[in-house]
Amino acid sequence: MSGFTPRLPLVSEMPPTEEQLRRLKNTVMGAGYRLSQLAQSGQMHAAAAAELASISRELTEAVARLERLLAALQQDR
Questions:
Q1: What is the mean pLDDT of residues 33-59?
Q2: Strands (DSSP E) along the chain, which ranges?
């Protein structure tokens, strides 16, 4: 065993821009999750529920893009 354990950077070690992006990613993730819940709640007309589900999927894709961007920024440091 080499004694080296890779670790994720602590939030306090992130540059302010990366921290802001991380927080925004979490916000987008939460919004997508909540829209998905609303779409599945049965409280909306089918067309509205389908539109909310579509928006939720788009937000999930945006989260993945933000995660890739954050990973690239961390590698560049």
A1: 97
A2: none
